[in-house]
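INFO  loader      accepted 1 record
INFO  loader      residues=348
INFO  predictor   begin
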Amino acid sequence: MTQQNKVSDFDYSLPTELIAQEPSAKRDDCRLLCLDKKTGAISHKSFFDILNFFHKGDVLVFNNSKVMPARLRAQKKGTGGKLEVLLIKSLGDSWECIVGGKVKIGTEIEFLDTKLSAVIISDLGVGLWELKFNVSDSRLLIIAKKIGEMPLPPYIKRIEGANKNDNKYYQTVYADNNKIGSAAAPTAGLHFTKKLLKNLEDKGVILVPLTLHVGLGTFAPLKVDNLKDIKLHKEFVEISKASWNKIKKAKRVIAVGTTSVRSLEAAATNLLSKDKQGNYFGETDIFISPGYKFKIVNGLITNFHLPKSSLMMLVSALAGRDNILQAYNEAVENKYRFFSFGDAMFII
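INFO  predictor   done
INFO  writer      dumping tokens
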């Protein structure tokens, strides 16, 4: 097999009408494409059928990060010029943000229907700005919960932005209120219902949480073509000692989403710090592409990813590029729904 060294090796053709604009009416009623990573065999199921693929003692690892309602409507102070601010992550005394509209260092921003304000204090490059708000982080999150919209990805087109259903469906059922920090949903987990999780536990599957706060880079296009030149964004990861102990003892680890994969493999390759209690934490920019040898993950539940994305390379590392492209082409032929609100794939 020819070694894949270029981003262009991970391209495929996708009709725009297959990009899902709305979630499934029932979370676990979406379609599920199952791919045998060893043989390349493909089967077509419904997501609730996933229960049949699990065995007693399997460990299912999921990302419990909660999405912030991070898109805030705003205006330039004194001019009324409309702006849109997307909160990305806290920098301590300030925030990394995307600002939609013409701004510069020193621009003062007022947020609609609130006394919240901010000033741009630095240009972080690649479309990012550092904002200093007039309230604490905890207060900012409270205000964002009241006035913010869910930060839907750019390929979901809405005439008037997010709707009230997005607050429910662009969030996993296991998102932890104490783990708020994602600027995008870990979307593979959107298909799970509380009933399905209970059925998995009743079957003897061990459910294990970790936290990775999903950042801007999820949707950022790769600007180089050589895989050796790729540098990913950093995202915060946290894995408790209790979770890690269960993972280490497992005969088979199934990850929910690429964020869980990156977290587990970052810990396994000593890319995270460890506190005195044995909890892993820290930021990681681990890039997984074909040729990578997985230390922890045996299987993956995921959505269908954008062409030429780092996530296409990650799933290709697990299942082989040829198998992945064959599966994606078959999904297109069978009119699967793609991306965040789309159908699912199980690599086993």
